[in-house]
Amino acid sequence: MSIGIERIRKSFGSFVALQDINLQLPSGELTALLGPSGSGKTTLLRIIAGLEQADSGLIRFNDEDISQRHVAERGVGFVFQHYALFKHMTVFENVAYGLTVKPKKYRPANAEIAKKVHNLLELVQLGWTADRYPAQLSGGQRQRIALARALAVEPKVLLLDEPFGALDAKVRAELRRWLRRLHDEIHVTSVFVTHDQEEALEVADRIVVMNKGRIEQQGTPEHVYDNPANPFVYEFLGNVNLFHARVKQGQSQIGNIALASPEYNNQDEQQGLAYVRPHEIDVFSAPQADAIKVKLDLITIVGPVVRLEALDESTGQLIHIELPKEQFKTLQLQQADTAWLLPRYSKVFLGEGI
Ligand code: ATP
């Protein structure tokens, strides 16, 4: 089931939560709505679900306009941040719930419900919890049960609002990989809301970056990460260092360092801001022509990666660098040592000064 979102607007009083949203989400894809708090992600999800009415615009499932259809008639399944399992029901009863409350003529026979619930519990790898109560499960297990419950009614669209938001980092990371594998198996068109860029990059087929009720950019995670459309997306998708840059004839200059900027081939020099990710900087322990001379302020080892904070004493700028531990070791650098930096790559946005 594809989802079409056309010219959706929504205000709460005088506050405009969604400005003019247009999106096409292909059938079977897992899409992440990614953005900072208040950017309108949940509001958009609730409008797709039918829990909220847009002021104008429409929602299509396949080609059909379902904007006026009640939430119960849209065929959507939900998973929210707070599990919302029924405490007084067993896991089995929770997962079966959506089937048992169907009107009699649509309700499957008990044996069929039992078979389906057991299959779903196997799918979320929690078959052994059928007779337990939610309180006897971990947070991560409860979210997997919530997902099984949402899938029980065979939704055409699955909507997840920060489904792992309440869990600790390790469980969260496990569950996102698990969700990715599960989605590869069942291919139900899914939309999930997150403000965690790593989660979106890792899990989604498609990312929609939102800000202040607008879509800043959308595309595959790789495309959006490698080709951020604007400074907001660049900064939102990961750490970045900003340098003043002069651009002309397909080249940008950060100080005396020349880098390729093929998109700007103007004859006249223009000013801009160069965006350089921490892993796109080479570090040297001996002087290099044109390199930025820095003092190593902080060295942090995070597993196989070393993070450096380097101070450019001539400008006062703190530069963030990330490199593999093995590579860092060969440099034999220590805190307070002098080092030289050469950015390898930068993306320049014109018209901003530092
Ligand atoms: P978060 O990650 O914090 O949930 P979000 O991107 O999901 O943020 P929304 O929940 O969609 O953002 O909210 C967008 C804006 O609309 C927020 O500023 C919020 O305060 C406002 N808003 C949402 N629902 C209502 C409501 N029922 N009444 C008034 N304002 C609302």
From TrEMBL:
<keyword id="KW-0764">Sulfate transport</keyword>
<dbReference type="InterPro" id="IPR024765">
    <property type="entry name" value="TOBE-like"/>
</dbReference>
<dbReference type="GO" id="GO:0043190">
    <property type="term" value="C:ATP-binding cassette (ABC) transporter complex"/>
</dbReference>
<dbReference type="InterPro" id="IPR041193">
    <property type="entry name" value="CysA_C"/>
</dbReference>
<dbReference type="InterPro" id="IPR003439">
    <property type="entry name" value="ABC_transporter-like_ATP-bd"/>
</dbReference>
<dbReference type="Pfam" id="PF17850">
    <property type="entry name" value="CysA_C_terminal"/>
</dbReference>
<dbReference type="InterPro" id="IPR050093">
    <property type="entry name" value="ABC_SmlMolc_Importer"/>
</dbReference>
<dbReference type="Pfam" id="PF00005">
    <property type="entry name" value="ABC_tran"/>
</dbReference>
<dbReference type="Pfam" id="PF12857">
    <property type="entry name" value="TOBE_3"/>
</dbReference>
<dbReference type="InterPro" id="IPR008995">
    <property type="entry name" value="Mo/tungstate-bd_C_term_dom"/>
</dbReference>
<protein>
    <submittedName>
        <fullName>Sulfate ABC transporter ATPase</fullName>
    </submittedName>
</protein>
<dbReference type="GO" id="GO:0005524">
    <property type="term" value="F:ATP binding"/>
</dbReference>
<keyword id="KW-0813">Transport</keyword>
<keyword id="KW-0472">Membrane</keyword>
<dbReference type="InterPro" id="IPR017871">
    <property type="entry name" value="ABC_transporter-like_CS"/>
</dbReference>
<keyword id="KW-1278">Translocase</keyword>
<keyword id="KW-0547">Nucleotide-binding</keyword>
<dbReference type="GO" id="GO:0015419">
    <property type="term" value="F:ABC-type sulfate transporter activity"/>
</dbReference>
<feature type="domain" description="ABC transporter">
    <location>
        <begin position="3"/>
        <end position="237"/>
    </location>
</feature>
<dbReference type="InterPro" id="IPR005666">
    <property type="entry name" value="Sulph_transpt1"/>
</dbReference>
<dbReference type="InterPro" id="IPR027417">
    <property type="entry name" value="P-loop_NTPase"/>
</dbReference>
<keyword id="KW-0067">ATP-binding</keyword>
<dbReference type="InterPro" id="IPR003593">
    <property type="entry name" value="AAA+_ATPase"/>
</dbReference>
<dbReference type="GO" id="GO:0016887">
    <property type="term" value="F:ATP hydrolysis activity"/>
</dbReference>
<keyword id="KW-1003">Cell membrane</keyword>
